[in-house]
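URGENT: need a sanity check before tomorrow's submission.

F., can you look over the Transcription initiation factor TFIID subunit 5 record below? I want to be sure the sequence and structure line up before it goes out.
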Amino acid sequence: DRQTLVAVLQFLRRSNLRESEEILRREARLLGDDLGGSVATVATSSPGVAAVAAVPPGKGEAHGDYGVGPSCQCEPGNGYILHCATCLRVSSPSSKTTHSGDVSTVVVEDQPDVSAVLSAYNQQGDPTLYEEYYSGLKHFIECSLDCHRAELSQLFYPLFVHMYLELVYNQHESEAKSFFERFHGDQECYYQDDLRVLSSLTKKEHMKGNETMLDFRTSKFVLRISRDSYQLLKRHLQEKQNNQIWNIVQEHLYIDIFDGMPRSKQQIDAMVGSLAGEAKREANKAKVFFGLLKEPEFDVPLDDEDEEGENEEGKPKKKKPKKDNVGSKSKKQDPNAPPQNRIPLPELKDSDKLDKVMNMKEAARRVRLGPECLPSICFYTFLNAYQGLTAVDITDDSSMIVGGFADSTVRVWSVTPKKLRSVKTAADLSLIDKESDDVLERIMDEKTASELKILYGHSGPVYGTSFSPDRNYLLSCSEDGTVRLWSLQTFTCLVGYKGHNYPVWDTQFSPYGYYFVSGGHDRVARLWATDHYQPLRIFAGHLADVTCTRFHPNSNYIATGSADRTIRLWDVLNGNCVRIFTGHKGPIHSLAFSPNGRFLATGATDGRVLLWDIGHGLMVGELKGHTDTIYALRFSRDGEILASGSMDNTVRLWDAVKAFEDLETDDFTTATGHINLPENSQDLLLGTYMTKSTPVVHLHFTRRNLLLAAGAYSSQ
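Structure tokens as predicted:
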């Protein structure tokens, strides 16, 4: 390779073996010596990270990782060794040169500011030839073999965008317009929204504060291509001397090359479509502890009552040992589970233990779902919701339902005969006998009992709500940039968490309480604890709004869905991003983890539900059927059925057991991302249930596997 070659040439030069040096030079066709000076060092690695530096005669070697100059007019003998598109002048305007003793070093800024980012578009290419370059490459790709054509076609979109932006930046406005009009129709349909934004950038000034533009510039667009296809492309561009396109490939694209068969059109289409291309394969290699934490052990004192309970104890009785079985299984540590103390979790209070006991009793009466036994669905329709229903949540025990509204109110309803009551005033509380058995009943003020409580405090639409697992607290997040914590004992606001400067789209409590997550328009998700004013972690990496957030059942990870059309999985312990999933063609609006923690289901505006294997970091299924945005996803309590709710006014039930069985996650698939999705997802669809005219915004399985759905009736 070149690096070794140059090192050998340097050694020969230092040892005064001129003749050998010349022979090697001729053999390697490495022409053009510098003017009696030293040989420059060369650092080449993956595409886009190649660099050359020239050193004045008499100086030492140049070191450092340099940004690549966008074009090169190298002549033999002007101080460069490599005469190609990747040359860089040491005096390039975006780099600083420092001299320490004899060594010249180039330092390039890590985080580019807007002007530095845009200056990379200073090109010397002939603007009138851009259409010719692009159509030449297009012709080459369309005439190549089928197996390479699908892979190389991925280049069309990023090249189109960068060439257009380069023309606009260099003020060739008429050429840019003609280039856009000629080729924008060739791009894939899922890039239409991005192209609409792009078409509005017609002058250099427009590019300055444009976020989409900056995203595209600062993050390299990732393409996954087989080695054969890449070699074919490289050979074509070098033969055609097409430096302008080769520059863009080197500068702005990250080509993730894999060995093996090229991928088919279907395989590529399933994975592409996000704002920055696919995820690099390295991004999904980190180990993820997706197993569940061991349940704490405590006595179940209420079993005796159960025995006498009902006559038809037979059925639950049969299931009961099964449940204990699961209990004893969880006593052995799941090999994929994180250590118990990996992150500090709150200790169980007596009331929590009592609730767990109730949960176990309910679970004993749980209906086993499957293709032959579908759940009943109970739909809560919000009528006359002229305030605009924007968020819904239901408590784990299904006793309360909350709605967030566009008029900035939060409304809590009791859905059981038991009404909502507030705690008595301090004066009345002092009169209560604190030792009495029913003290928890006595502290409640009967005069305040009602089916509905309205919470005022936000100053903008409420986009997300979440009950705490112990039902003592409620979170709400709003366009006003705050997340509020409300007490369900007093129905007052306890804290307003300020961290986001823009609308907060979603918030969710951890399954263990105490921690919660929020995500918003500022493109970051934040992890909070209820007793801290400041966030504990900030998860940054998405290129657009974080639209939905979800805790993993073991609380060690958080999934976020974004308008950049990707899903990311974050480690709560250190804030690292451990998975990036691409494949959706529109903003993500719903996430659901399977109860065993192994799988993730995601729904988006493209009407598709995608299924992901978290351990292997792979897409394992695609469920097609909805015709509009999917706002709600939920697995049944034992994970047999996945329910999806959409703006198309339907609830659909899918066979999750069948979707996840016999997964092909061999090493080859994991290494190359050659996913093989079943052709027909209709085999997995168990039922479609229409509402009259109510978009589905929330789904919830009760502890006995009754499915609750909610939405606001829309009259149009």
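My own read: DSSP finds 19 helices and 36 strands in the chain. Residues 125-284 form a domain with the Serine Threonine Protein Phosphatase 5, Tetratricopeptide repeat fold (CATH 1.25.40.500). If you see anything odd, call me.
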